[in-house]
Amino acid sequence: MPPEHAISPRSGHGAGPHAPAQPAQSLLILGASARAWAVSAARTGLRIEAADLFADRDLLAVASAVAIPAERYPGALAEAALGFPSGPWCYTGALENHPGLVDAIAATRTLAGNGGDAIRRVRSPQLLAESLAEAGIGFPRTLDDPTAVPCDGTWLRKPRESGGGQGIAPWAGPVATPRPPASPSDHVWQERCTGLPVAGVFVVTSRGARLVGASRQLIGVGAWHANPYAYCGSIDVDPQTLPDDLGHQWDRIGSLLAGPFALRGAVGVDAIVTPSGQLVVIEINPRPTASIELIDRRTGGCLAGDHLAACGIVTGRCSPAPSGGRWAKGILRVALPIAIDDRLCDRLDRFNAAWSGADGWPAIADLPRSGTVVPSGAPCISLFAVADTGRQARRLLDDRMGIVSEAIGRP
């Protein structure tokens, strides 16, 4: 979904960085994609404003939003923020790659989230490895230079500034690896860890961290046109159903988030469960993550409200919503460029209406606008499914993916 220029702009000026004494009236959300967090935040009764790369139809349904050009990301987000009324703001992925920009925007309006210093601490591989080791939690060996890295595919080359697993590739040496980095400082090299990819979501306050969600991550699903290491969905897991030993490991991670790293609000942790049942943390995302909306669907709650409260932002009570079931989410990319027209929008809307009635929540999200062109390999839409078990939800999700993929590919 390529960006276009501003849609529904609002005028106004930024507020100072002090916390509001009265309940907030609005919230500005900035990031590569704002839709999921905007939907959750809108249920608090706040007026939602947003700037991201897409300004999809379902984002525009809950927020006054602008789309920024991809070639001007992320700097254009700071410019877009100046066009919205004063009030608190928060960020989604992958703005944590730009802590200086986060601090620059936070100098003009209240940040409901983690600032640049906190981001730098928790994104430092060395500091993260040391802190996790003290807590008895694993972290893959990570190097800044490939000189001593084996070239047999047992290590991965990872961009320092990326999101969703994009740009990750097995390391086969500077000659054998396609498109080697322009500078080694742009990447790190990390030992591959075998196991099940999972994620945990915490709400972190000054009093501690609470694990509110867990999920199995769906990585590199070829039928959905995803790259081998790309994040392309999640299957939600109720954290109360986790085995005790695994739950205790998550608790130790939460203690680090609230203590040494001093994070606040919704925080995501990507990890691997090894065959022996040990958690190995891959990275910590100090902001709301893509799997968070599954928690709202399972619980009927409003995680954005919890996040804002943890950051000292007063909101209204969360509006009620359906709850229950095991939820699965998938991101459908396109193999070839797709022009979005009115006919395709109508097809997607019909599928959405038919499936959403049974689910109780929208079954299709990130609905592109007519007139846009989705580039090859880019995300097109997100799909959801709910069932009694995670396995059943995944099967239903695959069925829906096949139907929608065929409709998108049909002339």
In short:
The protein has 411 residues and is an alpha+beta fold. It is 27% helix and 25% strand. Among the domains are: 26-121, Rossmann fold (3-Layer(aba) Sandwich); 141-191, no CATH class; 325-411, TATA-Binding Protein (2-Layer Sandwich).
Give your account of this protein's structure.
The chain has eleven helices and 18 strands. It has helices at residues 35-42, 57-60, 75-81, 99-106, 116-122, 125-134, 244-258, 292-299, 303-310, 342-359, 390-409; strands at 26-30, 47-52, 63-67, 89-91, 142-143, 155-159, 169-170, 187-191, 196-205, 208-219, 231-237, 265-273, 279-285, 326-333, 338-339, 364-365, 373-374, 379-387. The strands form four sheets. It has an eight-stranded antiparallel β-sheet. A hairpin with a 2-residue loop joins strand 9 (196-205) and strand 10 (208-219). Helix 4 (99-106) runs antiparallel to helix 5. The model is unreliable at 1-21 (pLDDT under 50).
> What is the rounded Rg?
20 Å
**DSSP strand tally:** 18
* Helix content class: 25-40%
Distance between the termini: 18 Å
What is the makeup of the main sheet?
8 strands, antiparallel
Which strand order spans the largest sheet, edge to edge or round the barrel?
A: 13-12-9-10-11-14-18-16
What is the SS-derived class?
alpha+beta
Estimated share of beta-strand residues = 15-25%
The tally of helices reads 11
* Overall body shape: globular
CATH topology of the domain at 26-121: Rossmann fold
The average pLDDT score comes to: 91
Order of helices and strands: EHEHEHEHHHEEEEEEEHEEHHEEHEEEH
CATH architecture of the domain at 26-121: 3-Layer(aba) Sandwich
Low-confidence stretches: 1-21
